Amino acid sequence: MITAKVSLTQALKSQRQFIAETGSGHHIVLDDAAGATGAKPIELVAVALAGCTAFDVITMLRQKHHQKVTAYEVHVEADQAERPPQVFTVIRLRHVLTGFGLDKTAIEQAIQLSEEKYCSVGAMLKEKAALKTVYEIHEEPSSWLQSMSNPERVSA
């Protein structure tokens, strides 16, 4: 079971700032654009999607495909409906991976499995929004890292 609690921080003031506490004991500041002290709740939905798919993809790339990923980012942009409840209508995800000899097929498979099978946040959102995903692969420019990731190549 997932649990959370959201509490108003300053009950006697006009601000709408809240502190969220997750069931695992972590805290997040929530606010609106006017207060600008924390994330808007809808932004956290976008972050949750990016985080969910990022965990899936990096896990599959490391454990199943043994890819040498040295950096990984998931960028998300979402368009909202003009009228309330202003749900996401289109969500664009861009996976940016850096590493040594990364396998395009492995990356495509990991992203596809995340979107179709594993990411619970994406499964909920794709009921209302079109998901559009792209990825970029960058070769790691630091040759000294490659020698560290392949110790048999290091000579004394």
Kindly describe this structure.
By secondary structure, the chain is α+β, with helices and mostly antiparallel strands. The protein folds into 2 domains: 1-39, no CATH class; 41-153, 2-Layer Sandwich (GMP Synthetase, Chain A, domain 3), CATH 3.30.300.20. It has 4 helices and 6 strands, in the order E-E-E-H-E-E-H-H-E-H. The protein has helices spanning 41-64, 104-118, 120-125, 143-149; strands at 4-8, 18-22, 27-30, 68-80, 88-100, 130-139. Strand 2 and strand 3 (27-30) form a beta hairpin. The longest helix has 24 residues, at 41-64. The radius of gyration is 20 Å and the shape is elongated.
Describe, in short, the structure shown.
The protein has helices at 41-64, 104-118, 120-125, 143-149, and strands spanning 4-8, 18-22, 27-30, 68-80, 88-100, 130-139. With 156 residues, the protein is α+β, with helices and mostly antiparallel strands.
